[in-house]
Structures are given as structure tokens and as C-alpha cells.
């Protein structure tokens, strides 16, 4: 209720404009917000002012010109071509891609492991459920940084030197990393890729057709086998028809290290393992909570309808559980991405280690570098939540 | 009301940026009664805390000497351990008065970061340490090898330059601290550690079996290490610079912490000027006349400090080499005190 | 012919006792039996040597690595350095000050945690407003005849606890304001709160710590310099208040709308209705969430080692590069993991318990 609604006799009693103004919630809110804006502006201004004068006084170079300067240092792992003569700007992208690589692979592995653990914890087998419980309670209660150190320094020490590598199917494992043979596509290999994507498209179309047919006739279509056949069968046929246009680049021990093939550096393995193991413990709890949130009646109804156990899980339990699981799962994915920044502790060349580490040190331009790094994580976070919100709303709509 | 807020904001902004640097570092130090000194988080021989948290080392003694010169008491130092990343900001922001953290003097640092290097207390060069098992005798044989490096140092750049120059390939394994670098090397993650040679000796004694590793003879870069101060405060810059010079001159004249009092009676005019009995004394530096006497008495001359921390009286056993006085064929040369 | 009832037969032996339990829980069908056997085999092969290493072949006390002769774990490394791991480089004569600070905090928290203790409000007020002052003077000194202990001498578990406790206590008021702001109807206040919360939740703590350690000094004028620990704390508090705000918002949302309306109907002002009606109810609901964020923060404090502070993890690592005790990093890591685990597991158990208890309320 605002003052103006009151009888005039009372309003005359209130003489000064300020008290009337003060008691009007709307105006008060406005006033408060103006004050907030002013306060913030003053705060920001003083920070900017200070920073500029500090930078000038100390003769520190500013601006983003350093991005075009030659970096002059090497980076252990790069997904794009990089040499010491490239610029600081390029180190940004090298770091960024390494962050994305470990995050994406970590998310995939943590999701798979987490689902198994979450389901396992609900298992009727006492041993399985206890093992899963112990796993979860141990790994989520120990700091991730410690786990990274442990996997890196303690496990690394137990691996053999390059000359005593463990060999398995043409792959080598030693203290310098895991060396895998790399398939190299020859002439005409592109056809295989084309067929692969064609298979994907065909599967999607088939799935739509199968769904429609099921709605009309109630008949089931063996989608899994058909899909697998299309996605992997087609490229395989193309591969043989083209005369197997592929060579394998084997890792060979020359000098100190293996050369050739694909190298998976131990820093990556340790970080990926730690991120997976740590995040999986949280995902497991989310999955368990999601499954438990499905009312028991649903399971009984499905059984009464005569659905086999696998279909009950696929069509009854999971779709309902997923609605509960997805929002917290999103935040776990974001956490994993942010946690990948701990790479700097063991020297995996991610964004924080390469760009906010070495580049910052060599250029000394803290503000620009930290600003760019934070912007990347913010963007990744926002993109992930947009995608997950979209997925979430789609899931929710289908159910209604 | 709005006007008032605006004005307050303006006043605040002005007061925050206005009166910087009005007072010199020397006055601040004298008022505070303590020299704030940025050091490493632990590097044997240069700056290392013992179990009780007492700091010792070559770089530590620079700060102690400055404290002796300015405050007359070498113990009036507050040591602030810094990572390689933080060191310059800490100095720029005034958190520390001197950065004495085996920092290499380079053009970029001297000109673009607002810093001044007040001399060289250790001439160093980058070298390599390898496991003896490897059977390598020269760095030229290290083509394709993996190197453990500490992040945020000139080492990374030198290594890249060296291998590019010699047309060899390498893979850099970068660690955050020197302790981790040793652990990585020990685990076999890399074939060699590369760092300033002085550090290699310091790191070597941290190996479980120091005898299994050797430092290669090659030196691939120039690494003049020295104390750093903020640019734009010449008074303080002079104090730090002449603290170092006094220690060198003392060694040259044979003045040690043991014989300073005797030397007060010396007839040698050079010694008398050093100890503040005649000559410029402390006036130009705004210090007490006995400033150099206090340094030598409480901390020692350069030779003593060197031997005690990294040289023949320390586990590191580094030889004087190019760090010998110019009169002994080394590079350490101080301008005369007159 | 018999006319009385036969005594009841016992249940078949395969469904009772140990055998029955085994059959029901481990060998209910073929698939389960195989799984049980496989897991059992792995557990025995893995745990056996681990237990042997950690307990049977281990040495617990001694002054040097020479005491470790049994070939297993060398816990002497831990027991020998225990003081340092707990108190860092804090002067030995001042250990009681750390103990007293922690004891006071533990006592206050226990008071609030136990049900049905009187004067909870006063104790909460004490913990939030008076305790930090007492704690500061106890730890830092400089008054009441206590010697000043510079913060760069703080370390070990006590530093970890100081970071976590100050982080959570100081983030609380900011979190409350931000949560209220986010639920506010004032667009600018709301926008500010949302941006603040989403910004800090979107970036990793490590970049925040970097920012605090290398950029903060540039933001303020020359005369103001922050202690390294203070800088880390500022970073942690900025970061933590965003998480706190979300927990508190969750609690506020759980309060039925009728409560807000009733408070309005009574003519209470916004702040009065918050203080007297909403917060007391919401805070109770928030405790599990607050405990969970505290656990997360407690684990995250280990990150300060990257900016060169000696928390328990950092100090164990540095003790491990002491030339007297080389090569015991595994023991060190296991010890730190155990310490963190005890704290985190204990707190998570408490919060789960509380959640169960609170659920019955509504």
C-alpha cells in the first residue's frame, strides 16, 4: 500500500516530502537501486583508476599487442601445429584445445563410470553395493588436487623406463606415456568417412520410421543392430571396396623415446584419471538419487504389463530418472571442466598452465592474461548450461 | 544526496591514486623497522627455510645485509616466499622492498616490468643434469630427449633457443616448483633437468641417490642473478646496489666478519673509507656512517657469504668459478668506494 | 491319529543364518555369483599387499629413515614431523594459541549442532561476530601481551582450517545479501546479484586465486598492501559467497509462500519479515547445504599451494623434499588423504543425518 491511497487528513499530517518519499516502497526501491549503481560505478572507477595509474607508474606495458609476439617456448602436447616460433596468441589456442580435450574425455568417462557405480550401489548383490559405496565415500571426500598428485607422482614412479616398456598389441606403456599405433588414411580414405556420416544420417531416418511404425502397429524394430550395422558396416564395406587405403604408423624406440604413432602423455593420463574417478563418485550419487526418485509403482506397473527387465529400465525407469538426474549432472560437468584447470599442478599443458602460467610469466601482463582465461571458462560454462537447459526442456516436454 | 555520493566517489578515487610514491622505500623501511624481502619457496643454497622456518642462503643474505645497512640489525628482515609467477607483482605492488629470488637480469624485465636490477650477486648459466645411467657426455647428444623444467623462468626460452639453433628436437615437461621438477626427474618422466647450474647442484642433493646424476659441462645461456627493486626510487636502488658493492670491496680488501673490529685500526685508506671512517661515509645514501661496517660485521663479505651458502662450506660444493673476484680471474668487480 | 499341532519346522537352512544371507546377498543367481567371485578375488589380491604394506610391515616411530627397517610403510616420517604438519612454522611456544582458537570454534559449533541446547542465537552471534576478533588476536597476536606471529609462518592443518572457517563465515553475510538480491523485485539489484553469482560460479577457483595473488595488488593504491594470506582469503570469500548465495536461495525457496504473505499481512517491513519470520525457518533448512559447501571449500583450500601458501598438502610435500626424508611421498599423500577424508566424511555424515531429521518436519 502506498501513501497516496491514504485519507487526505493523514497525508496532511506528513509535511516534509522526504518522509513521504522514504515510505513509498517503489520510490525507495528506485532510490536504493540508484545508490547501488552509483556505489558500483564508484567502486569500478576507483579500481580502474588505480590500476591505470599503478601500471603507468611502474612502467608496465599494457594492451593485447603481446599476442602477436613470438612465444619462444615449447609446449608438450598440442592439437594444432605449434612450434617455438609461433605467437603468444597461438599458445592461447593450444592451451584452450588441451583443456577442451581433457574435459570432454573426462566427462564421457566420468559419466559411464558414474552410471555403473550409481546402479551398482543399488545392486542386490551385497558385495557389489558395498564396493560401490566404499568407492564413492572414499573418492569424493579427498581433495582432487591430492588425487592428481597421487596418480601422477606415485603411480608414475611404478612405470618402467622407455627401454623396458610394457608392450601390448603394438602399443607401449612406460613412464613417458602410452604410445599407440596411429592409423593413417591413404588415398580414398575420405570415402570411408563419407559412408560413416551417411550411416549416421540413415540411422536417424530409420529411427524416425521405426518410431512411427511402432506408434501405428505396435511392432518393435531391432533398432540397435540395424543402427550399428549402418554406422559401422557401411564404412567397413567402403573400406574394403577401396582396397584398404590405410597404413599404420607404429611407435618405434629411437634414441631416448618412442617416435611415431599417437603419444598419450602421462600428465594427460593422470589428470584424466583423477578427474574421472573424482567426478564419477559425485555422478554416481546423482544417478542413485535419480533412480530412487522414480516411484516404486512405476516398476510394479511395468512388471504387471509384462515388460522384460531391460525394457523396464530403458522405457520406464531411465526416462523418468533422467529428468531428476540432468540438472545436477550439468553442474558436475561444469565442475569437471573447471577442475581441469588443476592441470597446472602437474604440468599438463592446459589453458591455465600454458597461458595463465608460462605466457603470463614471460609477458608479465597479468590483467590481460587472467581476463582472457576467465572469459574462456565463463563462456564454456554458459555454453554448457545453455545446451543442458535445452536438453532438459526437451526431456521435460516429451514426458508431458 | 546523489551529488554527495558522486563527490565521495570522486574523492575516494582521487585519494586512492593520488599520493603514491610520496615517501621513498628507504624511509618506509626505517619507519617500519623491517625489510620485507621476497625469496623462493625453498631452494637450497639460495633461500631455504629450515625446520623452524629460519631462512638461509645467498639470496637471503642479500636482504640481511640490506637490513644491517639500513637498520643496523641483520635480523630485521621479514621473508616472504614467492612463486615464480608472483614475484614481479609482489615487488611492483610494494608488498616487498627487495626481490632476492635468483632472478635473471634481462632486457624485458628491466625495461617493461618497472623493475631495476641492483647488481649481480651470482653469475650463472643454464645447464643440464642427467642420470649417469643414460651414458650421455654432452648436451649435443640429447636430441629427442624429454626435459623437466620449472615453469615461469627464462629457462624455458633458452632451452627452446638452444635446440632450435642446433636443429634438435625435445619435449618440455613443465612443473610448478623446483621440488616437483626433481620428483619428475626421479620418477624418470624426463631424461634431463635443465635449469641454472647453481640450481642443478641444489636440486641434485634432493635426489634420493645424488651420485646417480651428473651435471653436464655445457652452459647454454647467460644468467646474471641479482636483487631487484622497483623502478623510480633511486635512493633505495642505491642502497641495495652499494650494499652488494660493499660486500665485494670487503672481500677484495680482506675485511671479514671476524676481523672488522681490528680493521677499524687499519691505516689503509680504502679500508677506512669502506668502514666509514673517512670518505663519503653514509651521507649520500642517507644511511649511518657505519653502514658497511654493520654489513660486514653481521653478515660477512661476499666470499664468506658465498662459501657459507653455496661454496666449499655447504653441501652444494659449488666452486667460485666466474663468481670469483676480478682480481682472481672472475667477474665480480665492484666500483671503488670513494 | 494325532490331534495336536505339529511344532513348526525351522525355515530351510538355505534361507537362514550365514548360508542364507550369503545365498540371498551374494549368490542369488549365476550372474551374481560370478560377479561376487570376481570382485572378491580382486579385493583379496589388492587389499592383501596394501594392508601388509600399511600395517604389518610398517614402522611407526623413529628420528630418521634409518628407523624404517621393515620394508613396508615408513610412518615414522609422519609421526616425526607431526607438529609441523599440524602447525606449520608457527613458533612452538604458541601452539596453545592455535589449539585454543580451534577448540573455541569446535565448542561453539558443537553447541549449535546439538539439539535442544539453550541460547543458540547468542552462540551463533558469538561465532559470527565476536569469535573472529578473538581468533584474530589469538592467532596473529599483537595485543594482550601476545607476540605477533606473521602469517607467512602459518601453515599445515591449522592454515587449512583457518582458510576454510574464515572463508565460510565471511562468505555467509555476503551470501545472504546476494540470495535476497537474486530474489528481489528490483531489476538492477537482481541483475547485479545474478551476474555476480554466475560469474564466480563460472570460473575455476584457481584462476580466482591467481587473480587475487597477481592482480589484486594492482587494483588498490600504492599504500595499501595486502598480506599474501589475506589476498588468498579475499579470493576465497568472493568465490565462496556466490556458492553460499545459491544454497541460501534454495533455503528461501523452500519456505511456503504463505509465510511471506503472513508476514506482509502483519505489516512487517521487508527486513523485519526476513529477520523474524523467513530466515529462522530457512536457516534450519540450509544447514545441510551449508555443510556441503563447507566440505567443498575445505577440499578446495588445498589449491592455495599453487599460489605458494603452505597448507597441509603443501607442507607435507615440502617436508618430503627435505634431504633427511627423501622418498616417502606415498606415505605423505596417504596421510593427507586420510586427514581430509576424516573431516569430510564426518561432516557429510552429519549433513545426511540432519537432512533426514529435517525431512520429517515438513
Largest sheet of chain B: 6 strands, mixed
Biggest interface between protein chains, with counts per chain?
A-B, 51 and 57 residues
Q: Specify the structural class of chain C.
A: mainly alpha
CATH domain class of the largest domain in chain C: Mainly Alpha
Low-confidence stretches of chain C: none
**Can you name the CATH architecture of the largest domain in chain C?**
Orthogonal Bundle
> Treating each run of at least 4 consecutive H or I residues as one helix, how many helices of chain B?
13
CATH superfamily of the largest domain in chain C: MetI-like
CATH C-level name of the domain at 125-222 in chain B: Alpha Beta
- Portion of residues in beta strands of chain B equals 15-25%
Summarize the SSE layout with pairings:
The complex is a heterotrimer of chains A (400), B (338) and C (362).
Chain A: H1 8-13, H2 17-23, H3 25-57, H4 88-121, H5 126-139, H6 144-158, E1 166-168, E2 171-174, E3 177-180, E4 182-185, H7 190-217, H8 223-241, E5 246-249, E6 252-254, E7 257-259, E8 262-264, H9 266-293, H10 296-304, H11 309-339, H12 351-363, H13 366-399
Antiparallel strand pairs in A: 1-2, 2-3, 3-8, 4-5, 6-7
Chain B: H1 2-18, H2 25-32, E1 35-39, E2 48-49, E3 55-56, H3 58-71, E4 77-81, H4 87-92, E5 98-104, H5 107-112, E6 115-117, E7 122-124, E8 126-131, E9 146-150, H6 154-165, E10 171-175, H7 178-186, E11 192-196, H8 197-204, E12 213-215, E13 223-230, H9 234-253, H10 260-263, H11 269-274, H12 291-298, H13 302-309
Parallel strand pairs in B: 1-4, 1-5, 9-10, 9-11
Antiparallel strand pairs in B: 2-3, 5-13, 6-13, 7-13, 8-11, 8-12
Chain C: H1 17-25, H2 30-56, H3 76-87, H4 95-113, H5 120-140, H6 156-182, H7 187-202, H8 205-219, H9 228-253, H10 257-265, H11 270-300, H12 312-320, H13 329-359
Helix pairs in contact in C: 3-6, 3-12, 4-5, 6-7, 6-9, 6-11, 6-12, 7-9, 8-9, 9-11, 10-11, 11-13, 12-13
Amino acid at each position: 500500500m502506498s501513501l497516496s491511497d491514504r485519507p487526505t487528513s493523514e497525508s496532511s499530517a506528513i509535511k516534509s516530502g522526504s518522509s513521504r518519499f522514504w515510505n513509498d516502497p517503489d520510490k525507495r526501491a528506485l532510490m536504493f537501486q540508484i545508490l547501488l549503481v552509483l556505489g558500483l560505478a564508484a567502486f569500478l572507477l576507483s579500481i580502474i583508476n588505480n590500476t591505470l595509474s599503478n601500471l603507468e607508474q611502474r612502467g608496465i606495458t599494457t594492451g593485447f599487442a603481446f599476442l602477436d609476439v613470438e612465444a619462444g617456448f615449447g609446449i608438450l602436447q598440442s592439437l594444432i601445429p605449434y612450434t617455438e616460433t609461433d605467437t603468444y596468441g597461438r599458445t592461447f589456442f593450444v592451451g584452450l584445445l588441451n583443456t577442451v580435450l581433457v574435459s570432454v574425455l573426462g566427462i564421457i568417462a566420468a559419466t559411464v563410470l558414474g552410471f555403473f557405480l550409481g546402479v551398482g550401489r543399488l545392486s542386490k548383490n551385497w558385495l557389489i553395493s558395498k564396493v560401490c559405496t566404499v568407492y564413492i565415500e572414499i573418492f569424493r571426500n579427498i581433495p582432487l588436487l591430492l588425487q592428481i598428485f597421487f596418480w601422477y607422482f606415485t603411480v608414475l614412479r611404478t612405470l618402467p623406463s622407455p627401454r623396458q616398456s610394457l608392450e601390448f598389441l603394438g602399443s607401449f606403456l612406460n613412464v613417458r606415456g602410452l604410445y599407440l599405433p596411429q592409423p593413417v588414411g591413404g588415398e580414398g580414405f575420405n570415402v570411408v568417412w563419407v559412408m560413416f556420416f551417411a550411416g549416421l544420417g540413415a540411422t536417424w531416418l530409420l529411427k524416425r520410421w521405426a518410431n512411427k511404425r511402432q506408434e501405428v502397429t505396435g511392432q518393435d524394430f531391432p533398432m540397435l543392430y540395424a543402427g550399428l550395422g549402418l554406422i559401422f558396416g557401411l564404412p567397413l564395406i567402403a573400406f574394403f571396396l577401396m582396397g584398404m587405403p590405410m597404413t599404420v604408423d607404429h611407435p618405434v624406440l629411437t634414441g631416448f623415446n618412442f617416435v611415431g604413432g599417437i603419444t598419450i602423455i602421462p600428465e594427460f593420463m593422470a589428470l584424466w584419471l583423477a578427474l574421472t574417478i573424482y567426478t564419477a563418485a559425485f555422478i554416481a550419487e546423482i544417478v542413485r538419487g535419480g533412480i530412487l526418485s522414480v516411484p516404486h509403482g512405476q516398476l510394479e506397473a511395468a512388471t504387471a504389463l509384462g515388460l522384460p527387465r531391460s525394457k523396464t529400465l530403458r522405457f520406464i525407469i531411465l526416462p523418468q530418472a533422467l529428468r531428476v538426474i540432468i540438472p545436477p549432472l550439468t553442474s558436475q560437468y561444469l565442475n569437471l571442466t573447471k577442475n581441469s584447470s588443476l592441470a597446472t599442478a602437474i604440468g599438463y599443458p592446459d589453458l591455465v598452465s600454458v597461458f595463465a602460467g608460462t605466457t603470463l610469466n614471460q609477458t608479465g601482463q597479468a590483467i590481460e592474461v587472467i581476463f582472457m582465461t576467465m572469459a574462456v571458462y565463463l563462456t564454456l560454462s554458459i555454453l554448457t548450461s545453455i545446451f543442458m537447459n535445452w536438453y532438459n526442456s526437451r526431456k521435460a516436454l516429451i514426458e508431458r | 544526496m546523489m551529488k554527495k555520493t558522486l563527490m565521495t566517489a570522486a574523492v575516494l578515487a582521487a585519494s586512492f591514486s593520488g599520493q603514491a610514491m610520496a615517501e621513498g622505500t628507504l624511509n618506509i623501511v626505517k619507519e617500519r623497522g623491517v625489510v620485507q624481502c621476497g625469496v623462493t619457496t625453498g631452494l637450497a643454497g639460495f633461500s631455504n627455510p629450515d625446520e623452524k622456518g629460519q631462512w638461509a642462503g645467498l639470496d637471503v643474505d642479500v636482504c640481511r645485509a640490506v637490513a644491517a645497512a639500513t637498520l643496523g640489525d641483520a635480523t630485521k628482515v621479514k621473508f616472504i616466499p614467492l612463486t615464480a609467477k608472483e614475484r614481479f607483482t609482489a615487488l611492483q605492488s610494494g608488498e616487498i622492498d627487495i626481490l632476492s629470488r635468483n632472478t635473471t637480469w634481462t632486457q624485458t624485465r628491466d625495461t617493461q616490468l618497472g623493475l631495476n636490477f641492483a647488481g649481480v650477486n651470482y653469475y650463472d648459466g643454464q645447464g643440464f643434469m642427467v642420470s649417469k645411467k643414460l651414458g650421455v657426455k654432452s648436451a649435443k647428444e640429447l636430441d629427442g630427449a624429454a626435459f623437466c623444467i620449472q615453469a615461469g623462468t627464462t629457462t624455458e626460452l633458452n632451452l627452446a633457443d638452444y635446440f632450435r639453433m642446433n636443429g634438435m628436437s625435445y619435449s618440455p615437461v613443465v612443473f610448478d616448483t623446483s621440488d616437483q621438477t626433481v620428483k619428475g626427474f626421479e620418477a624418470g618422466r624426463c631424461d634431463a633437468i635443465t635449469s641454472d647450474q647453481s640450481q642443478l647442484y641444489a636440486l641434485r642433493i634432493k635426489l634420493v641417490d645424488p651420485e646417480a646424476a651428473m651435471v653436464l659441462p655445457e652452459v647454454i645461456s647467460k644468467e646474471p642473478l641479482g636483487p631487484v627493486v622497483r623502478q623510480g626510487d633511486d635512493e633505495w636502488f642505491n642502497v641495495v646496489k652499494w650494499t652488494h658493492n660493499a660486500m665485494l670491496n670487503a672481500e677484495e680488501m680482506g675485511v671479514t666478519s671476524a676481523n672488522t673490529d681490528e680493521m677499524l685500526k687499519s691505516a689503509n685508506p680504502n679500508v677506512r673509507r669502506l668502514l666509514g671512517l673517512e670518505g663519503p661515509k653514509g651521507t649520500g645514501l642517507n644511511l649511518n656512517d657505519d653502514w658497511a661496517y654493520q654489513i660486514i660485521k653481521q653478515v660477512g663479505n661476499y666470499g664468506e657469504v658465498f662459501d657459507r651458502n653455496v661454496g666449499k662450506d655447504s653441501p652444494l660444493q659449488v666452486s667460485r668459478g666466474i663468481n670469483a673476484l676480478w682480481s682472481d680471474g672472475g667477474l665480480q668487480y665492484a666500483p671503488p668506494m670513494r | 491319529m494325532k490331534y495336536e499341532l505339529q511344532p513348526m519346522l525351522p525355515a530351510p537352512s538355505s534361507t537362514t543364518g550365514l548360508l542364507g544371507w550369503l545365498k540371498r546377498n551374494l549368490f542369488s543367481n549365476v550372474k551374481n555369483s560370478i560377479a561376487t567371485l570376481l570382485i572378491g578375488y580382486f579385493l583379496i589380491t589388492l587389499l592383501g599387499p596394501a594392508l601388509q604394506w600399511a600395517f604389518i610391515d610398517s614402522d611407526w616411530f623413529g628420528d630418521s629413515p634409518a628407523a624404517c627397517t621393515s620394508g613396508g610403510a615408513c610412518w615414522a616420517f609422519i609421526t616425526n614431523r607431526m607438529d609441523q604438519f599440524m602447525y606449520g612454522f608457527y613458533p612452538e611456544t604458541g601452539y596453545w594459541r592455535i589449539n585454543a582458537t580451534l577448540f573455541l570454534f569446535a565448542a561453539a559449533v558443537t553447541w549449535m549442532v546439538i539439539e535442544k541446547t539453550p541460547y543458540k542465537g547468542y552462540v551463533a552471534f558469538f561465532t559470527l561476530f565476536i569469535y573472529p576478533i578473538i581468533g584474530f588476536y589469538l592467532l596473529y597476536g599483537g595485543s594482550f601481551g601476545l607476540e605477533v606471529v606473521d602469517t607467512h609462518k602459518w601453515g599445515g592443518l591449522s592454515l587449512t582450517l583457518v582458510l576454510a572457517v574464515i572463508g565460510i563465515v565471511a562468505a555467509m553475510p555476503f551470501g545472504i545479501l546476494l540470495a535476497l538480491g537474486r530474489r528481489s523485485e528490483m531489476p538492477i539489484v537482481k541483475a547485479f546479484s545474478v551476474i555476480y553469482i554466475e560469474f564466480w560460479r563460472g570460473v575455476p577457483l584457481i584462476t580466482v586465486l591467481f587473480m587475487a595473488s597477481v592482480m589484486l595488488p594492482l587494483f588498490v593504491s600504492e599504500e595499501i598492501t595486502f598480506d599474501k594470506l589475506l589476498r588468498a582469503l579475499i579470493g576465497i570469500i568472493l568465490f565462496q559467497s556466490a556458492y553460499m548465495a545459491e544454497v541460501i536461495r534454495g533455503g528461501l525457496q523452500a519456505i511456503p509462500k504463505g509465510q511471506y504473505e503472513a508476514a506482509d499481512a502483519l505489516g512487517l517491513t521487508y527486513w523485519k519479515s526476513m529477520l523474524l519470520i523467513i530466515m529462522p525457518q530457512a536457516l534450519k533448512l540450509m544447514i545441510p547445504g551449508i555443510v556441503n559447501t563447507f566440505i567443498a571449500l575445505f577440499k578446495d583450500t588445498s589449491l592455495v599451494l599453487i599460489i605458494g601458501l603452505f597448507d597441509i598438502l603443501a607442507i607435507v610435500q615440502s617436508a618430503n623434499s627435505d634431504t633427511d626424508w627423501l622418498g616417502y611421498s606415498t606415505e605423505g599423500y596417504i596421510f593427507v588423504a586420510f586427514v581430509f577424508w576424516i573431516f569430510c566424511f564426518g561432516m557429510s555424515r552429519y549433513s545426511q543425518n540432519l537432512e533426514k531429521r529435517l525431512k520429517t518436519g515438513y
